[in-house]
Amino acid sequence: MHAHLLNASHDVSRRSWLASANPGAGDFPLQNLPFGVFREAGSPDSFRGGVAIGDQVLNLRALAGEGLLQGDAAAALQACTGDTLNGLLALGAPAWSALRHGLFDLLLDNAAEPVQQAVRRCLVPLSQIEHRLPTQPGDYTDFYTSIDHALNVGRLIFPERPLTPNFQWLPIAYHGRVSSMGVSGQRFHRPMGQSLPVGASAPVYGPCARLDYELELAIYIGPGNALGQPIGLGQAESHIFGIGLLNDWSARDHQFWEMAPLGPFLGKNFATTVSPWIVTLEALAPYRLPWSRPAEHPQPLPYLEAASNREHGAIDIQLQVWLSTAAQRQTGRSATCLSKTSFRHQYWSIGQMVTQHTVGGCNLQPGDVLGSGTVSGPAPGEAGAIIELTEGGRKPLDLGHGEKRTFLEDGDMISLTGWCEKPGYARIGFGQCRGEVLPAVGS
Ligand code: CA
């Protein structure tokens, strides 16, 4: 099963009987079919799997009850009827693909009228639902794999040597927390902690003064590996179900004081927000690109090299960061776009992250989340964190109407958006990953 290969489910000329599911109408055309977990907003019902289609969500528990799919597709559909998608992710790429193609056929405009009627009974408007995390991750690991991000932040801390010696040789990461991970709409209190003020000889305790976001992707692990059994790069993508958006909220003042020598701790563990929908690797096939490394840079060691990675290891995912301040919302003003970039610039690929994570024998499990690391591109305005945009707080951003930002203030909402587009193919979207900063407690 090769998720990078094109097939009928990528054909932009295929149409659905559901008008809002046709390409050009929004994030979720027929060619996308991203998976999440939902229920009707405020309902006492239990959560279950769903697929976003047009301006609707297809209730996969209800669909299983209609008995329209057979074989592998029916088995995969059954794995979506509970309140987490871990079971689906454990099944592997052949099952995921069977379900994708089964759903695609049910939604096609040539589906039989009784089929259309049965599927219609399973649709719920997107405007009427609420989400929970699409998987219950056993573990969450956050990488650090954008060289532009590493250079931008490194210059602020170690101007003479912005890249650590290991950066170009391995995808660096730290192990994060699942307990504070929330789905889009997450609201969290500004964290308290220690920081070392500039020029001071002793730290102070107080609310974070340099609160930041990080624009990242969430990479969802499918079938895991047994403890002690590494995943080679040639097989790494068969262990990835799909990709969502992720915001790795960061308390920079706390982080920079505590980080040496063991890495981020309280600076990162107070909140992480993910988008509700997982776009499958199969849906992303048209937007794959060769992965390369500038000739003058160190080339990967052999275990981080594979022909498949060179041929299609990169993905062109367009990403944006939006800030909505409390004052903007109160006065009816629109949000401010802070940056725009693409995942295509990332220094390490998603497959290399999986291989590096497991090369020592560490086992990954279905539903685990890998954060891609902040996605920053090479040009100004492509930075994925406010600390880069403001050069460590030295150059405030002017939001207009007298508002400026060096770091995030209480009431600020950050929304990440993402999509893929390419001539001859549908534009497919990731939806939104939104979170809001509440005032500190305990200060
Ligand atoms: Ca991060």
CATH architecture label name of the largest domain: Alpha-Beta Complex
Largest sheet: 8 strands, mixed
What is the rounded distance between the termini? 54 Å
CATH class of the largest domain: Alpha Beta
The beta-strand count equals 26
* Count of DSSP H/I helices: 11
CATH topology of the largest domain: Fumarylacetoacetate hydrolase, domain 2
> What count of structural domains?
2
Describe the structure.
With 443 residues, the protein is an alpha+beta fold. It has two domains: 124 residues, Fumarylacetoacetase, N-terminal domain (SH3 type barrels); 299 residues, Fumarylacetoacetase-like, C-terminal domain (Fumarylacetoacetate hydrolase, domain 2), CATH 3.90.850. Helix content is 19%, strand content 27%. The chain is built from eleven helices and 26 strands. Strands 6, 7, 8, 13, 14, 16, 17 and 22 form an eight-stranded mixed sheet that branches. Strands 4-3-2-1-5 form a five-stranded antiparallel sheet. Helix 2 crosses helix 4. The termini are far apart. It binds calcium ion (CA). Calcium ion (CA) binds next to loops.
Task: Please specify the SSE layout and strand pairing.
Elements: E1 35-40, E2 48-53, E3 56-59, H1 60-66, H2 71-78, H3 86-91, H4 93-107, H5 113-120, E4 123-125, E5 129-132, E6 140-144, H6 147-157, E7 172-175, E8 181-183, E9 186-189, E10 192-195, E11 204-207, E12 211-212, E13 215-221, E14 240-247, E15 250-251, H7 252-258, E16 272-274, E17 279-280, E18 288-289, H8 307-312, E19 314-315, E20 318-324, H9 326-330, E21 336-342, H10 350-358, E22 369-371, H11 386-389, E23 397-400, E24 403-405, E25 413-420, E26 428-438
Parallel strand pairs: 6-22, 8-16, 9-26
Antiparallel strand pairs: 1-2, 1-5, 2-3, 3-4, 6-7, 10-11, 12-15, 13-14, 13-22, 14-16, 14-17, 18-19, 20-21, 20-25, 23-24, 25-26
Helix pairs in contact: 2-4
The structure holds calcium ion.
Calcium ion (CA) binds next to loops.
